[in-house]
Design a protein that fits this description.
This protein has six helices and no strands. By secondary structure, it is mainly alpha-helical. The chain has one domain. Helix 1 runs antiparallel to helix 2. The chain starts with a helix and ends with a helix.
Length: 121
């Protein structure tokens, strides 16, 4: 990873220092994963298969969302002008959208149903 180029890109994009640190950390973790997978035999390469496998393994091990990781990787691919990997990371991130539960006014105590009906018109 060209860390200085990435940091400068994030800074120019208006990212806060804590966001920059997290993005760099997530990209380093992905590189570490690739290094383990390659067993240090080859140069680290970002491939579609490696990205999909990394995200799948992370989700299965941690049961946590990967949207933040994918955001960091998207920013890295954008900074390094790797359009193909950027698009793949974007697609993976879009498929992991957070499902929001609707805010139901009728569950708020003290609001009468006739007032809710008026708001919905």
């Amino acid at each position: 990873m060209d860390e200085e180029v990435f940091r400068e890109f994030l800074k120019k994009s208006g990212r806060q220092p804590n966001v920059i640190e997290k993005c760099v950390l997530f990209v380093k973790r992905f590189e570490d994963y690739l290094a383990i997978q390659k067993q240090y035999n080859e140069e680290l390469t970002f491939t579609t298969e490696s990205l999909v496998k990394y995200i799948s393994e992370y989700e299965s091990k941690t049961k946590k969302s990967t949207r933040t990781i994918l955001y960091a990787l998207m920013q890295y691919f954008k900074a390094t002008k790797d359009d193909l990997m950027y698009k793949i990371a974007l697609e993976l991130r879009e498929t992991r959208k957070v499902k929001k539960t609707p805010f139901l006014l009728k569950k708020i105590l003290g609001i009468e149903s006739k007032h809710i009906e008026r708001l919905l018109r």
